[in-house]
Write a structure and sequence with these properties.
The protein is elongated. It has a single domain, classed as Thiol Ester Dehydrase, Chain A (Roll), CATH 3.10.129.10. It is an alpha+beta fold. A hairpin with a 2-residue loop joins strand 3 and strand 4.
Length: 130
């Protein structure tokens, strides 16, 4: 318990968001339509929240490898993430029992120096090892 999950970082640009929208069939205007985005009071399109969950899944899968199976993932959005933002996912193990690992995960918005400027989401993952 208490083992750090290695962090991963991504810059989420418009091209990433369009590709993700195409893969998930989520074409909400908040993710690409500047006129709609500005009318809602934002200055840039908002990253689809499910991309934060995908980053969490990628973080733990990269850490434990292809044989580990993500069996549960839950998360809560805390702050909208604007297109072009750099986000970092990191975590720590909560428990390890038999072949099951439970981790707490956090996605931060970070600046170019790598300092967290906001917490975008908190979550938990459960993985099963072979």
């Amino acid at each position: 318990m208490g083992t750090p999950v290695p962090a991963i970082e991504r810059r989420i640009g418009i091209a990433d968001m369009v590709a993700y929208s195409g893969a998930t069939w989520d074409w909400h205007r908040m993710h690409y339509d500047m006129e709609y985005v500005e009318a809602a009071g934002f200055t840039a399109p908002i990253v689809d929240g499910q991309m934060l969950g995908a980053l969490m899944a990628e973080c733990v899968q990269d850490w434990l490898g292809p044989d580990a199976r993500l069996t549960k993932l839950s998360f809560r959005f805390l702050t909208p993430v604007s297109a072009g933002s750099i986000i970092r996912c990191e975590g720590i193990t909560d428990s390890i029992e038999d072949s099951t690992i439970v981790c707490s995960l956090t996605v931060y918005v970070v600046d170019v120096q790598g300092s967290a400027t906001a917490t975008a989401a908190n979550g938990h993952a459960e993985l099963r090892l072979p």
